[in-house]
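Why do we bother with a discrete structure alphabet at all? Because it lets us treat a fold like text: something you can write down, compare, and reason about line by line. To make this less abstract, here is a complete entry for Membrane protein. Read it the way you would read a sentence in a foreign language you are learning: slowly, and without expecting to understand everything at once.
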Amino acid sequence: MQGTIDGFSYGAVTPVAAFLMACLGAALGLRCTNRSLRTERSFKAGWLALGATSIGSGIWTMHFIAMLGFSVDGMTIGYDKPITFASLAVAIGMVGVGIFIVGYRGATRMALVTGGTITGLGVATMHYLGMAGMRFEGQFEYDTITVALSVVIAVVAATTALWAAVSVHGFLLSLGASVVMGVAVSGMHYTGMAALSVHVHPGAHPDAAAAGAATAPLVPLLIGPGCFLILAAVVVMFDPLMVMGTPDWNDPRTSGAGRPPGIPAQRQVPRFGTHADPASFHSRPRDPAPPGEW
């Protein structure tokens, strides 16, 4: 018997909340990946791991917040905890592989294609593994073409996000890239849900309290990843390089920016300080010499 699906039991609340969580995870992950490119090699792996865990947790949390609004008419929905947490591990693990490839190999075409494909497949695997962990008196069936489209969206979104992580500099640009990734991840999720149809077992017994029962087991599962994202946000906020970036005078790529061709860079001289305390010196451009003192 065909079951009736409602993916928006709480209206726009769950899609909007899910989208915001996807954006938060993407923003933290992209900034951590970008930060890894400007740190010592001994700390690079730590920043990449934090970025992978942030993106994976954000995507997983986004998925299950969206599932809070999912219901099958008259059916009580439960969740298998081992499979549900396995989907979180898959998301973090496969996203981590993609981020480490790009973090260490740079934004080369091969690294982006390889890392983006692995990351996108990890996002799609997380989604469908999480769906496989749902328990109710029926079974899911999927439209193959729509599923394939959702996987393509995931791979393209992941590749674009990895490119942005290593190529886009500046807080506002990274924020914009995270919004784009949030839109793409949400689009992948609801494209996958559009491929879904439900067949209820003939002997199933409808339950009038099914809507409330479906929400209860999900809330405790979301607490851990949600708390992690908050802690990751605190780490990002207290690292000035994550928000402000490196000063222009320390960035060799911008050392010649803004000067007409042929004019050399101004020398840096101490503004104040003493030779006994070298740390008290600060640099500023040398003032031009007055006429007659050449």
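What the structure line is telling us, in plain words: The CA atoms of residues 9 and 69 lie 5 Å apart. The radius of gyration is 25 Å.
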